[in-house]
Amino acid sequence: MLFLLLVTLFTGLFRASASKIDAPPQQTGVVSGSAYAAPDKYDPKRDPEKDLATAEAEAKTSNRNIIVIVGGDWCSWCHIMDDFFHEHRDVTALREKNYVLMKLNMSRENENRAFLSHYPRIHGYPHIFILDADGKLVQSQPTNVLEDGRTYNVKRFKKFLEDFAPKASA
Length: 170
What we know:
globular, disordered N terminus, four-stranded mixed β-sheet, Glutaredoxin, alpha+beta
């Protein structure tokens, strides 16, 4: 009886600690007091028009621009970019301070042609579009110029994010 009690207790403790290990990381892109939550993957089922409308509303209320990262879960450099932001919290903080994140899927499953037809042609992935709070294109940016070996260059990425951040209102 005592043995069963100990096994039950131990199992309960193990499950509790395992569930903490398996818990997803805290989502980035959430601004305090905001219901907006940035997507954490490229989902071919998402509606980009709806996502952009939500991003625009958030950008207007938080005085930020929109950073649209076009890529896919198939894209190795998209994963490298995600890892880069995870490893460089200062770059992530700069992005979150100045931009509302929108991830746009580009894959065989959903190429989002109608949505992307409003923007300059993309020659490689990931690709970044910077939009103002009204959804107007500010910058179309290939990411290969931000690369450094098998990752991204911190200095160049910070400068890029600073250069296209919304201008402070007078």
